[in-house]
Amino acid sequence: MPGGLYSSGGPLSRKTKATIPAVEDIEWYKFGAMPGQEGNAILAGHRDWKGSFGNFRDIEKLDVGDVVTIRFDKGSKKIFNVALNNTYRLDDVPEMVMDLAGDSRVTLITCGGRFDKKFAGYQNTIVIVLKGEGQA
Predict the structure, then answer these.
(1) What Cα–Cα distance (Å) separates residue 74 from each residue in 23, 31, 70, 94?
(2) pLDDT band at 102; cut points 50, 70, 90
(3) Do 99 and 40 form a contact (C-beta atoms < 8 A)?
(4) How many CB atoms neighbour CB 30 within 10 A?
(5) Does residue 9 belong to any structural domain of this protein?
(6) Is there a domain that residue 77 lies in?
(7) DSSP secondary structure string, 72-84?
(8) Which residues contact 125 (CB under 8 A, 6 or more apart)?
(9) What is the model's pTM?
(10) By residue range, what is the domain housing residue 89?
(11) What are phi and psi for residue 131, nearest 5 degrees?
(12) What are φ and ψ of residue 15, in 5° steps?
């Protein structure tokens, strides 16, 4: 299960905190679609973790229309365009982010904002929605 998700598919809260095991991992939410299929493919990754940068370190710098390539383990890749880039307070992530139904899209999720030692984590969630899948 990707970090930042309940087993039921809801957003992370301080009471149900989960994390992705390694800074270089990008986790796929197994109850969602695969990237490029009908529905919502949800991917979560670290921007940084324990002093190392993660794959999503500069994700908030993506602009609507930017091109993102997703590479799969067997060498194939798919190309998407950024359709949405929003930052939400940790406890205010809208339910639509985790909605698995609907048009084909990829939702990228990571932490953002200020790291708060009191809560041992970042206080915002960055959500990027990708659409327009094509083969590369």
Answers:
(1) 21, 21, 12, 34
(2) very high
(3) yes
(4) 9
(5) no
(6) yes
(7) -TTS-EEEEEEEE
(8) 4, 11, 12, 87, 88, 89, 90, 93, 109, 110, 111, 112
(9) 0.80
(10) 14-135
(11) -140, 175
(12) -80, -20
